[in-house]
Specification:
By secondary structure, the protein is an alpha+beta fold. Helix content is about 30%, strand content about 15%. It folds into three domains: about 80 residues, Immunoglobulin-like (Sandwich); about 100 residues, no CATH class; about 55 residues, no CATH class. It is extended.
């Protein structure tokens, strides 16, 4: 089978910026390429290339000020077979490893290893060693990348999962995830009606409820949850009983905003 690989990335640089791209097919799969996977940079700039110690083909450029587009497309021949599974593989203690393998234990360039180490130990430090450990970590990452991790953690066998204990325990493992949330103003004491990032932590339809947490006396009260609940319950009951309250039920006749909204209907009704 053939797999199409490609990408397009656009950078907006405030000034000329040196860059190193590690985007080409690895040397171990170059023989499977159909054609070439050369990088295309727009606007064109001088490029220099070299191979690093891991066999990656690296491309150096100096991106000019403004927008720079980097892209590539290629076809790769592949058997389509899954990765080989070796369940009997064992974990070798670090002191017993040969020297030429130690380079693969260096911290990753793609994540904040020093800050994620505590989370990794909390998640996998007590699991059995051997093949199952990387398989478990890979499956955990796969679920997280699909956005289904929270659902997997809160699922308790029932249709509605309302127990967030395991989700909160995961977030409390180390400070990395908490720091990322606070950087986006999503901490518990930072959450305001306009602080949503994407679809988290709340939805726009919750603005009326979360609004009260931003104004005194709710914002300064230790019992804000109960006060907000009571306020919303009072307003809900008031809305329910509007048709039965003299004066309030006459507002639509005194201020006929609905006639403006449905003006076409009333215009046609008047003609008929």
């Amino acid at each position: 089978m053939r797999i199409h690989v490609g990408f397009e990335m656009i950078y907006d640089c405030p000034q000329p910026t040196p860059m190193i791209f590690n985007l080409n097919v690895h040397v171990t799969r170059v023989s499977d390429l159909v054609g070439r996977d050369d990088l295309v940079v727009d606007p064109p700039v001088p490029m220099a290339a070299y191979r690093d110690g891991f066999g990656n083909w690296c491309t150096r450029i100096v991106a000019p000020q403004g927008r720079t587009r980097v892209m590539a497309n290629a076809l790769v021949n592949d058997t389509g077979l899954p990765d080989v599974i070796v369940p009997e593989a064992q974990q070798i203690p670090v002191p017993d490893l040969p020297e030429d393998t130690l380079v693969f234990l260096l911290g990753s360039r793609y994540c904040e290893t020093d800050r994620l180490s505590e989370t990794a130990w909390n998640l996998f430090g007590q699991t059995p060693t051997g093949w199952g450990l990387p398989a478990l970590a890979s499956a955990f990452l796969g679920v997280a990348q699909t956005g289904g991790l929270e659902g997997a953690l809160t699922s308790a066998g029932n249709f509605y999962g309302g127990d967030a204990t395991r989700s909160l325990l995961l977030l409390s493992d180390g400070a990395y995830l908490e720091d990322q949330a606070r950087a986006k103003n999503l901490g518990g004491d930072q959450w305001g009606m306009m602080n949503e990032a994407g679809n988290a932590p709340g939805q726009p339809w919750m603005w009326l409820y979360t609004f009260w947490y931003q104004v005194p006396p709710f914002s300064t009260s230790d019992n804000a949850d109960a006060l907000v609940w009571g306020t919303m319950m009072f307003l809900t009951l008031l809305l329910i009983f509007v048709p039965f309250l003299p004066g309030l039920r006459s507002i639509p006749r005194l201020i006929p905003i609905h006639r403006l909204v449905w003006r076409d209907y009333y215009r046609n009704a008047k003609k008929s």
